[in-house]
Write a structure and sequence with these properties.
By secondary structure, this protein is of the alpha+beta class. The chain has one domain. Helix content is 22%, strand content 41%. It has four helices and twelve strands; from the N terminus they run E-E-E-E-E-E-E-H-E-E-E-E-E-H-H-H. The strands form two sheets. Strands 1, 2, 3, 4, 5, 6, 7, 8, 9 and 10 form a ten-stranded mixed β-sheet that branches. Strands 11-12 form a two-stranded antiparallel sheet. A hairpin with a 6-residue loop joins strand 2 and strand 3 (29-32).
Length: 175
């Protein structure tokens, strides 16, 4: 137990293959090549503009909290989840490194320095449904897959044994 002062989250997004931070006062944008830390939570809060994915990542050296946010239907969010789903064993220090190809953001994800590949290479098909004479895409099976992945990761995050790792943070986060 100890005392400390509350540090607000720093909100981040991905733009043109970089991690983007916008200063709330000056609106100045700063870009980074990657974010690295301990995955503390995965949430899907509702905002005025719709539901989003929020990956909260902690820096264990500074105890700073970063919220990497993206649209709920973001392919990048789904890619991050699919990579994290492939972790067998301990969820360690993660690193998310975005890049930009053919006008699309993409990411490479690491767990304790090991590059992760997608667990699911075949995703549920997007079906078509008809409502009032109009045809609409139905991705409900695919959405359920990613919600299930997120729930499994939340269980790993909250697992107390996972937090009692013998790994030295200084070995993972080298200056």
């Amino acid at each position: 137990m100890g005392l400390g002062n509350f540090k607000p989250k720093t909100y981040l997004s991905i733009k043109e293959g970089k991690i983007r931070k916008i200063d709330p006062q000056t609106k100045q944008e700063t870009y980074y090549d990657f974010i690295e830390g301990i995955l503390n939570s995965i949430t899907t809060p509702e905002r005025d503009y719709g539901k989003i994915w929020e990956f909260e990542i902690l820096d264990p050296k500074t105890n700073d909290s970063y919220a990497l946010t993206m649209s709920y239907n973001s392919g990048v969010a789904k890619s991050i989840l699919n990579c994290l789903a492939s972790i067998e064993g301990t969820l360690g220090a993660i690193k998310i490194k975005p890049y930009f190809v053919n006008d699309f953001n993409k990411v490479t994800v690491f767990n304790d320095g090991v590059k992760l590949n997608w667990k699911y290479t075949q995703l549920p098909q997007i079906k078509e449904i008809e409502v009032a004479g109009k045809t609409y895409p139905d991705d409900s099976e695919r959405v359920k897959l990613f919600e299930d992945i997120a729930e499994g990761l939340r269980e790993k995050i909250s697992n107390k044994e996972n937090k009692k790792t013998g790994t030295s943070w200084d070995a993972i986060f080298k200056d």
